[in-house]
Specification:
Elements (H helix, E strand, L loop, with lengths): L4 H18 L2 H15 L4 H4 L2 H13 L5 H16 L2 H4 L2 H4 L2 H13 L1 H12 L2 H21 L1 H5 L3 H16 L3 H11 L1 H15 L2 H15 L16 H16 L2 H18 L4 H7 L4 H21 L2 H14 L2 H6 L5
Length: 335
């Protein structure tokens, strides 16, 4: 394309004007404010449809795997938080409000029905029954073998061993088998007894005070105590395993349906709401726009000017404009 001196002068003059205008912070602030004033009045459905939002989330959240770098960064940030020097001088009570702990304790203690169902499910689990049976067997055997009375009173030890021998002769089996058979026959009764005892021990009042006592024991501990329960050196492994679970879930039809229906429910509730209210839901208001976000935006604009980016991109479109047949005709310039 043949350059025209007059058009080139017009383009340069306009580019100089843009550079000069946007080099002033007030210009950027004014334009950003005007954009916000326009944007805040638009409703969600005027800008984006449900399909657009859902497609974006499906693509970015479900269809796109997390990068290895992101996974490593998550592990690094967790590690950084756990080994931070401030953990040694900060107590648990300084970062968790005691009134909230009390509310939680009252809430948990008040859920009697949930608690009883949990206990019922637990004590009727075969693993619990097996554990109780083994515990009783070991307790009886330990008592017979290591009774304080048997050790401290002369002759009692021999008497208890003799009693055990007699019992084994009468039952034609050893004591362990006899106890085991008894427990197997009565495991249902033992489970019911366990359930009753647990419900009595964890009633509303006792459970509340159990939580309160636990809080008083840990509130003065430093936050660094968390390192006792988290293997810092294993974080790359544990975070990776957590990612494997998410990576499997995100590809399931279940998760796709959950995201679709969740986004749809949110969209229906908010379709007619203006962005002013939607942004307020995120604690973004006009004051934040004017004071904080503008300060973040201005250095970007200034860097775009100094690097010549705005001038380069603007020239591209100005050339298309000035060398268009319509403008050439207005300027009385032959193409």
């Amino acid at each position: 394309m043949q350059k025209n001196p007059m058009i080139e002068q017009l383009i340069d003059a306009q580019l100089n004007f843009l550079d000069q205008s946007f080099s002033h912070n007030d210009t950027v602030a004014t334009e950003f404010t005007h954009f916000y004033q326009w944007f805040r009045k638009q409703s969600l459905q005027q800008i984006w449809s449900f399909d657009q939002i859902n497609a974006l989330l499906q693509k970015q959240i479900l269809n796109t795997a997390a990068s290895q770098f992101l996974i490593e960064q998550i592990a690094e940030h967790i590690k950084f938080a756990l080994i931070h020097p401030a953990n040694d001088s900060t107590t648990i009570a300084e970062i968790i409000p005691v009134l909230t702990i009390d509310k939680i304790a009252q809430y948990v203690a008040s859920k009697q029905g949930h608690r009883q169902r949990l206990i019922h499910t637990m004590v009727n689990n075969p693993a619990f029954s097996a554990m109780i049976s083994q515990l009783i067997q070991h307790a009886i055997q330990d008592y017979l073998d290591n009774s304080v009375i048997a050790k401290s009173v002369p002759g009692v030890s021999r008497f208890m061993k003799m009693g055990k021998s007699v019992l084994e002769n009468v039952t034609d089996t050893n004591l362990d088998n006899a106890v085991s058979k008894y427990l197997q026959k009565n495991i249902l009764k033992l489970s019911q007894m366990s359930e009753t005892v647990l419900n009595q021990h964890f009633d509303d009042h006792k459970l509340y005070h159990f939580q309160a006592n636990l809080w008083h024991k840990i509130k003065a501990l430093p936050v660094s105590v968390l390192k006792n329960y988290v293997e810092v050196q294993d974080l790359p492994l544990t975070v990776a395993m957590g990612h494997e679970i998410w990576d499997f879930m995100r590809q399931s039809e279940y998760m796709k349906q959950q995201v679709h229906d969740g986004v749809y429910a949110w969209y229906v509730r908010n379709a007619e709401r203006p962005f002013d209210l939607l942004l307020r839901d995120l604690n973004i208001d006009e004051a934040l726009i004017q004071h904080e976000l503008q300060n973040l935006l201005n250095p970007i604009v200034q860097q775009m000017i100094e690097s010549g980016y705005i001038r380069e991109r603007s020239r591209l479109y100005l050339e298309q404009f000035y060398y268009s047949s319509e403008v050439l005709k207005i300027l009385n310039i032959q193409a």
